[in-house]
């Protein structure tokens, strides 16, 4: 395959710690700006009597977008020799959380920016918390504005130690800490001579070493059943393979009913041609050796890589409904092809997605809140932890016929674990 690999990175951090400057720098230093953008921005700054800022480059993208040119400010692209990158620059926390939980954005790694001079601030901590909530594990702490502290190693280590303790408590173990000056371009593309003590390399060198998630087809097989059709005397199980690879002859498990059988035939739904193998992203129609009664919502997997089976799990929910999400009320939960009645049995914690402040949940979860909850479903369902497999680890909640919230599964208590 000569398709270039793409990695999605989100940049977060306290306001004014240099997110836009860093993104502008990365675009500039990798020659990824639209033609003339830099001159235009310099000209504009001059006219307004301001000095040039790399951060203004992002505004230039925004302007282009307004003129109908298709650049999405929230998804900026650039390339190194090795691969392509998409930088996710959400306009606010709310949008970022909503996009991540709904699957509209998918951050594989995160840059958490800290100002070397100001140090770790309230929002730096809250952003750390959000990353842990979303299960983003590849976190890099970028210590910016090193020029303001005379490129002092001592200062860098102090910030690193302070932040590390906090992040470790959230179960975040940053892969690396990188000192830079986004404004002066120090340690961006190549190691900075101002910081000979830095052993990590430049930000771009480190980016190119971030391991890419395994391809979806190499992950555990998940084929949620969409429908079962009867043709002649055969039953054809139809669905879309969400992850993994399926072969004729494979022994498979059907969850949560726990039946095992063998794959007899596979046809791609699109052209009905028979095939021996199919993988993630394909809609297929299969037949199996033992024709049990299978139904929509069940999930096919390999026996050794089964999904979790439970009727109680912990989740992080983003609420969009006008009516509060409350405890002990019946809602409909949709997870891949499964629809089931559910209720919130415990609300553990609530965060206002715009300010990231902790909220009061005596009245339930209000619009634009993010909450850590425990959910109980009326019957056993099967799913995955979002951080392992996204498509079967994500769900929506329906209230009065409207999709009113999205959630990701963070896990189940050990005592609730029911893998068979
Ligand atoms: P954001 O709010 O996180 O996007 O922050 P900006 O990128 O807009 O930067 C805020 C201010 O910090 C701007 O005035 C930048 O010029 C300044 N700034 C950003 N990076 C650096 C840096 O590396 N060194 C210094 N001295 N100033 C910086």
UniProtKB/TrEMBL annotation:
GO terms for molecular function: adenylylsulfate kinase activity; ATP binding; GTP binding; GTPase activity; sulfate adenylyltransferase (ATP) activity. Keywords: ATP-binding, GTP-binding, Multifunctional enzyme, Nucleotide-binding, Nucleotidyltransferase, Transferase. Residues 4-221 form the Tr-type G domain. Transmembrane segments: none annotated. One of its GO terms (biological process) is sulfate assimilation. The keyword Nucleotidyltransferase applies. The keyword Transferase applies. It catalyses: sulfate + ATP + H(+) = adenosine 5'-phosphosulfate + diphosphate; adenosine 5'-phosphosulfate + ATP = 3'-phosphoadenylyl sulfate + ADP + H(+). In the N-terminal section; belongs to the TRAFAC class translation factor GTPase superfamily. Classic translation factor GTPase family. CysN/NodQ subfamily. In the C-terminal section; belongs to the APS kinase family. APS kinase catalyzes the synthesis of activated sulfate. This is Sulfate adenylyltransferase subunit 1. It comes from Natranaerovirga hydrolytica. The chain holds residues 2 to 421 of 609 of the full protein.
